């Protein structure tokens, strides 16, 4: 049975003081005593599996042992030498499927070491005090252009600046940070992304140019001419469509845009949200959009995914968190038709799905209708080659995934151009996940390759 939606999308559903609490930090940092107790639970394993599970290869037992001995500077140095965005990754990494998931304590039926929380404890003072842990080498006279001020671009720029190169970062948005600034739930990283970037830039040798879009007032051919090397950290700018009639109706939004608008809003009480919200998708973006809708004051939030919970890219911990926030998760359903009344969204019709004998997802023909004031699309993002002009066909992979092809050195098929982060694909990166921590590692490795090429 379908309940009729009110067609009600409005701002200010909750008082300002409630919104402030809802979008404050979801998990408090460890204090000194708690950090020391947790650090002393670690076995400091030799050849620790947690290190192997970290895309950036942080020497986790080493930094935890330094916390235990109250050498906080040494702990921070160990983390940030491997992952220059270690503060952000401490907050947003899916540690339960990475380092903490491989902690040996799991095999004993015990809880894993809280590696993410310890990493945050070890690094937070760096951004608070502005401590500079790295020195910049003498100027080399080499200039590198980095396109994209997201995690990959920032990591690449910092590593190259340490070598004494001069870096110009160009980004299409008004603020640097990429996904960290625009694409992560506000309650995970309140007021943190820019503090971390300010600290990263304090090494010197890096200049950020915002509101510069590739293909508009920035061209790859010019960058190749004017710089000794170019790094592309373009991310995934295109949002996948549902492919349904009425997708441009009022009330149907991209979840990515919804999250970005929320992150940049100076007044949360001015943000409109529907009473009944349906989110389509199974990743972290879908979870973030659903939870934030609830925290803005939506009365009913339903997340719909076409397969079972085990197939969702959002981790079990993220799924459980959404449920604890009052989000209803429905599985084995896919969008079939958007419903409108008087030009306004009124609901969405979904079709039940199943796997056939060949393991393919098919519709059953059975339908479910949900009333909705707004539908948020979070069914994935793809690489947008806009702005690459004549180099696009050469750069973009021809194997069907549409991302930039790189080799093991992160070199593209265009001379003098490297790439990293979510926008790339490569044989040695099969199965790589689009995570902040992986983008940092890509940027770091690409920087090492660029430096070798420039100093050979």
Overview of the molecule:
The chain is an alpha/beta fold and 456 residues long. It folds into 3 domains: 9-20 and 239-380, FAD/NAD(P)-binding domain (3-Layer(bba) Sandwich), CATH 3.50.50.60; 40-129, Alpha-helical ferredoxin (Fumarate Reductase Iron-sulfur Protein, Chain B, domain 2, Orthogonal Bundle); 143-237 and 383-455, 3-Layer(bba) Sandwich (FAD/NAD(P)-binding domain), CATH 3.50.50. The protein has helices spanning 16-22, 32-39, 49-53, 60-68, 72-82, 86-92, 115-129, 151-162, 179-182, 193-201, 220-226, 255-264, 284-296, 316-324, 392-395, 436-455; strands at 9-10, 143-147, 166-170, 206-209, 229-232, 238-239, 252-254, 273-274, 276-280, 300-304, 328-330, 333-341, 344-355, 361-371, 374-377, 381-382, 404-405, 417-419, 424-425. The strands form 6 sheets. Strands 4-3-2-5-18 form a 5-stranded parallel β-sheet, with helices on both faces. Helix 4 packs antiparallel against helix 5 (72-82), helix 4 (60-68) crosses helix 7 and helix 5 packs across helix 7 (115-129). Residues 1-6 have low confidence and may be disordered.
How would you sum up this structure in a few lines?
The chain is α/β, with parallel strands linked by helices and 456 residues long.
């Amino acid at each position: 049975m379908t309940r009729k939606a009110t067609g009600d999308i409005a701002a200010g559903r909750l008082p300002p003081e409630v919104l402030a609490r809802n979008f404050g930090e979801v998990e408090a940092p460890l204090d000194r005593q708690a950090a020391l107790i947790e650090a002393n639970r670690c076995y400091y394993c030799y050849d620790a599996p947690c290190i192997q599970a970290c895309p950036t290869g942080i020497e986790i037992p080493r930094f935890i042992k330094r916390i235990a001995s109250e050498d906080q500077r040494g702990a921070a140095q160990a983390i940030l030498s491997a992952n220059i965005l270690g503060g952000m990754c401490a907050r947003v990494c899916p540690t339960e499927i990475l380092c903490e998931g491989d902690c040996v304590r799991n095999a004993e039926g015990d809880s894993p070491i809280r590696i993410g929380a310890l990493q945050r404890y070890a690094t937070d003072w760096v951004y608070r005090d502005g401590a500079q842990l790295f020195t910049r080498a003498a100027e080399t006279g080499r200039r590198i252009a980095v396109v994209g001020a997201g995690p990959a671009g920032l990591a690449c720029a910092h590593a190259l600046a340490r070598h004494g190169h001069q870096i110009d970062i160009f980004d299409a948005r008004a603020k640097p940070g990429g996904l960290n600034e625009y694409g992560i739930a506000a309650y995970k990283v309140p007021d943190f992304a820019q503090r971390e970037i300010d600290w990263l830039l304090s090494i010197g040798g890096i200049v950020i140019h915002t509101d510069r879009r590739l293909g508009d007032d920035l061209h790859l051919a010019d960058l190749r001419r004017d710089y000794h090397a170019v790094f592309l950290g373009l991310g995934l700018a295109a949002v996948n469509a549902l492919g349904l009639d009425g997708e441009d109706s009022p009330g149907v939004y991209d979840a990515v845009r919804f999250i970005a608008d929320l992150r940049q809003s100076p007044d949360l009480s001015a943000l409109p949200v529907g009473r009944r919200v349906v989110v389509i998708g199974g990743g972290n973006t879908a979870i973030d959009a659903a939870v934030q809708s609830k925290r803005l004051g939506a009365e009913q939030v339903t997340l719909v995914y076409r397969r079972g919970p085990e197939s969702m890219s959002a981790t079990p911990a993220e799924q459980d968190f959404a449920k604890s926030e009052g989000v209803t998760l429905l599985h084995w359903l896919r969008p079939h038709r958007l419903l409108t009344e008087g030009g306004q969204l009124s609901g969405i019709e979904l079709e039940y799905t199943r796997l056939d004998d060949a393991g393919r997802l098919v519709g059953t023909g059975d339908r479910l209708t949900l009333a909705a004031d707004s539908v948020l699309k979070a069914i994935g993002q793809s690489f947008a080659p806009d702005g690459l002009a004549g180099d696009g066909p050469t750069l973009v992979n021809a194997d069907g995934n549409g991302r930039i092809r790189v080799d093991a050195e992160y070199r593209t098929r265009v001379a003098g151009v490297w790439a990293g982060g979510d926008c790339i694909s490569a044989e040695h990166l099969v199965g790589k996940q689009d995570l902040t921590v992986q983008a940092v590692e890509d940027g770091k490795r690409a920087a090492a390759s660029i430096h070798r090429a420039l100093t050979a």
